[in-house]
Amino acid sequence: MKSQLIGFLMNFWVSFSLALYFHSGEREEKCIIEDVPSDTLVIGNYKVQRWDTQKQDFLESAPGLGMFVTVTTPSAEVNMLLSKLYGPKGTFSFTSYLSGEHIICLQSNSTRFVAFAGSKLRIHLDIRVGEHFLDESVLQAKGKVNEVNVRLENLIEQIHHISKEQNYEREREEKFRKTSEETNSNILWWAVVQTLILISIGIWQIKSLRDFFISKKLV
Question: pTM for the complete prediction?
Fold first, then answer.
């Protein structure tokens, strides 16, 4: 029973990922927004392919092409979290120090001196939030007991991340609820003000008509 439980825990792997691809031109910057809790590891894997006009298909990138990756934070004080030039295929990572929307931008460094400059690029991007990768070679070098311990520790980290993600979602929900309540309150008060204005205008019009009829001796 214990071995089955340990096997289940070892095979249980939780991660939050976003896998997609998009097209981009030469030196064209493309950005995505990732909402990340505070103190969370974010790992991005990407691969760039170029469009071949002869084969009419996307091929692997030619040597010399690189991708400039930048990550900006929601904070106005420390805006730039990552700014680094990578190759046509690579992995970047950063750790968020506050909750909010992080902007991840990729831009090719191709120039007119590159043979395929000006061609269309396809960028494959895989974003993983809160995932810590295990080094299988290190695990194989250790005994079974140590391997189970390492995997369980990693699983505990994943559980902590899930708890942190849930707390962040609750904070966002509470913030959204407060904003909705304030908006509804403002709408209610604006409706009351509009009603008072209409009543005031109606009373003024009735008084003006009454004074007009009296002045003309019609009543």
Answer: 0.59
